[in-house]
Amino acid sequence: MPFFARWRKQYLKFQECEHTYERHLRAVPTQETPQDQVIDESYVLVYMESLRALHFCKPPLQMHEILYSILQSQSEHFPPVKAACAFVIEWILGRVSVQNAFSRFDHAHAVELLYFLRLFLAVFRLSRYFDTDYSVSQYPQSIHTLDGDCASALGHFFAPGQPVCSSGELTEEQSRFVHYQVRRNDLLCVQAYAGTGKTRSLLAYAKLRPHQRFLYITFNAAAAKSARSVFPPNVDCRTMHSVALRHVLLPEDQELRTLRPRDVVRLLGDRIPEGKRTTEPVHDRSNALAPTTVALYILRTLDRFMQSTDDHIRPDVHIPKNMSLSTDLRVEAIAEATQTLWEMICSNKSRGRMKAPCPHDAYVKLLQLQPLATLRFFAEYNALLLDEAQDLSACQTAILLRARGQCGVIVVGDIHQKIYGFRGGSASAFNARLYSPTATFHLTKSFRFGSQVAALATKVLRLKAPPPWHNEEQHGVWQHPSITGHGSDKVYRDIRAISKPHTRIYRTNALLTRDLLQLSLTLPENEFLFLKTSQNLSHRSIIDLLHDGHRLYHGDSSGMTPNSSLREFSAWKELVEHVEAEDAADGKLTLVLSLQEMIASPDFLAQLEGLDRKFCANEESASIVLTTVHQAKGLEWDSVVMANDFSPSLDACTPFSLQPQVSQLFAQDELNHMYVAITRARCELFIPNCVLQWLVVLDGLFRYRFCEKKRSRKCPQCQQVSSLVQLCEPFAGTLQFDARTETLGCLLCMRSQLSTDDDLHDFVRFIDECGVSTVTGRLTSASITRYEHKMKIPSRLRSKRARLEVSSQQDTPACAGSTALDVLLPHVRAQKYTNMLESKMQSIDTWFTLEQFWLSPRESS
């Protein structure tokens, strides 16, 4: 890379000013400050400076003006201008990807050309939108897709190389971690993306040090059992709960089990607060809250307290937010009742014949409240190995990380796989503000999937804003996620291309169950289903649950199965209240309530019988495996179909941002679910519209291509042999925009439909104005000469422009003229800019509508 990278510097300067301007617009307005004026003026000045750098006397309003700018940009570190013009025309006409610039030109020249293109597109976007005489009915998708192509190519070029390693060898990233010697005061953080071999790395770390002792902590008993069969003898494999139970003294007769709402009612008795719903009653039911509903709010409060690091119950933190929105229960009363329940658990007090059982999270919390209890225990080891650390609660993390000083601590996990927030999973072990690491490592090379799934997962993760604890001054520039794959794979959006067998991954149990019932009716007789879910939602339990739901809905609870979760309720009304108090948790009760319409249908029991016959005993015999994203975590399949029930929607985007970004923590967790589902696929992945919409926001939906005339190609509208316009889309195997092509018509036929799409109008105008041959679709040397003569400006203006310098004290240069952007008042300019950003989000639906229009059968012209 040459030292004088003119276009790269200019584009990055423009980008930084625009990002600063956006942040300024997002800030809550109080009163105008001198800093506001500086930000506004800087943005205008960098636009004017870029306009002059591109050799424009006035703002460019047509795409073909890029050729004039290239012809004026001959320099030592830029491709030959005529070759650059020919390449750019091929690119804009959809015939090549901009990535081809690296094979056609010197790499340094290619980088400068791509930054030049990004700068032109940014200036072009603003010039068009701020021009008062130019009518814009939609955000230009062409600018969006072209800039996305440049950004992707540059990102690929500047990405660190991935050295090839032989089978069984550690990658360079893994080796760097494995050979780092941890000391007793050290905290090592290893961010290991999906399929990158984190357990293999921990295993190598322990094997390399056979004379040291390690304590391996994992999330559940099954994982601990599996680890014992893999790790060497110098590693003790335990769960967090087994460590806690070893160090907390509980009464001998205290039962260890989960508390249920009816347990709370029996334990607290008349100390259960009373309350009413503040929302409108459904079906004329009473507004009074059932005691079990109030008990559920108490249990939710207790759970949050036990998962936190607080030493007492805090009404403002632990009580569910939805309680105050839907009931008149006093937060102080719920906090007091929860505190009473907690004291009963700690002291094993009883009310009548019933003693308070101890939930499993309770003895973990008791250990956290005893800071000295584990110090001697941790000192027996050289280091703790914390696997899947993103799933640890804040309470569990505090216990384990206070071992630092007694032994080293190695935290391994993937913060983007934090999907157990409802169980307290906090990823706080990676919070550099709370626990400053000695060293941080990244494992980015996945051995599970290939380049297409890796690129898709990277795009989804880059939607997430940096975590709130990240401080750029203290921790350096936030390292944006970047995953590389291994081998070949394919990504599709059309489920009709699916092969069987395959696995379907759902975000919610509700849609999974609906699809189960639908598949039981449509699946061929010799094909079967396998339900890969938790034991609580197995094939047999889901059939029984739906039978019990049918009984409860029709007021017959006498025949319910033993231990059914619906036996807690005497009427459907209580179930409704309970689910609303659960804060929309995706549990079994929510599932039953979501199927109310189906349960009420007269043929529901017949549907259940048909479903029961479609299940098979093992996964290998199934045509379709159905699972949820939580059950799929840690697993993988050759062919994966994502269901269309993943969140968040586009509304979660940070407002007033040109590049989509999700900053709300809840919405980021939903993106984590999306990422986990995406990274379960080894060979084939089928994405739904809820994922596709985010990719369209990033890169666009389709683009046009102009093809040269060939005898084998006929216009589908007029049947004449001619040069043709095609529509090109990604996600038909690859993420490239030429993955799928559809011929729309010849240039003559398409001219009659220019009013359909502004981008098509611009595309055809570009062909007309730049002098491209309508037969070959190429630009000849003679055409370039004619274009240069046509666009030529007086030499005196060129020389004058060369003498101009950027200064906030100067008047606008005569050669650049006054533009629509700089003559506006600051508040008007800000409003126009925010309108542009809003139009981008609103145009997403327009692009999907246009796609349907072009791909639908049309009559011949």
UniProtKB/TrEMBL annotation:
One of its GO terms (biological process) is double-strand break repair via homologous recombination. It catalyses: ATP + H2O = ADP + phosphate + H(+); Couples ATP hydrolysis with the unwinding of duplex DNA by translocating in the 3'-5' direction. One of its GO terms (molecular function) is ATP binding. The keyword Repressor does not apply. The keyword Nucleotide-binding applies. Its EC number is 5.6.2.4. PROSITE patterns: UVRD_HELICASE_ATP_BIND. InterPro entries: DNA_helicase_UvrD-like_C, DNA_helicase_UvrD/REP, P-loop_NTPase, UvrD-like_ATP-bd. ATP binds at A192, Y193, A194, G195, T196, G197, K198, T199. GO terms for cellular component: nucleus. Residues 171-450 form the UvrD-like helicase ATP-binding domain. Transmembrane segments: none annotated. It holds the Pfam family UvrD_C. Keywords: ATP-binding, Helicase, Hydrolase, Isomerase, Nucleotide-binding. This is DNA 3'-5' helicase. It comes from Malassezia restricta (strain ATCC 96810 / NBRC 103918 / CBS 7877). The gene is fbh1.
